[in-house]
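Design request, tokens follow.
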């Protein structure tokens, strides 16, 4: 590769590393082109991208980014999986793919600025989608004031019933 071409690749890599919300490393040795293409298509559907990159270029491009925390994993045949939208969706695709294609081995990842291990990527895949989590949070937030109003109005109703009972008792005497 020419020096200018390498420089361009490193700039593209650096931009992708900065833009990605999550980053996963996987060893892809033993996979054929058709299998890698299928993984790429599946990842593209959830806002992810798979790139096979030389480790030396990856080390240089990661300097100054959060991906620098993964430098010790940049050895061997690595596929870098970028998640630009939903890290959980990409993790779900990776979990499904590793079941179907055991030759793809997850190594490590980066979620925001937090480094995660391979088993944590699989745990991330068990989370519900972001929309479901937001819906549950909104339900909780809306439910709390309604419960408070119900509890307070229950006390008021109980007070009214007690006062009415006292009034009825005084009228009876």
């Amino acid at each position: 590769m020419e020096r200018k071409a390498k420089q361009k690749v490193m700039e593209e890599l650096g931009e992708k590393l900065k833009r990605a919300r999550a980053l996963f490393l996987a060893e892809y040795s033993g996979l054929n082109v058709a299998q890698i293409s299928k993984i790429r298509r599946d990842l593209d559907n959830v806002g992810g991208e798979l790139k096979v990159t030389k480790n030396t270029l990856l080390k240089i491009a990661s300097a100054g980014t959060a991906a620098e925390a993964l430098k010790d994993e940049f050895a061997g045949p690595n596929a870098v999986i970028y998640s630009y939208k939903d890290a959980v969706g990409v993790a779900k695709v990776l979990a499904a793919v590793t079941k179907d294609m055991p030759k793809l081995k997850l190594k490590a990842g980066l979620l925001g600025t937090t480094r995660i291990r391979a088993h944590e990527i699989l745990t991330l895949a068990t989370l519900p989608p972001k929309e479901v989590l937001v819906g549950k949070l909104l339900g909780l937030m809306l439910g709390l004031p309604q419960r408070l109003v119900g509890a307070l109005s229950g006390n008021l109703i109980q007070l009214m019933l007690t006062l009415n009972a006292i009034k009825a008792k005084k009228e009876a005497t």
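Comment from the thread starter after seeing the answer: thanks! The mean pLDDT is 88.
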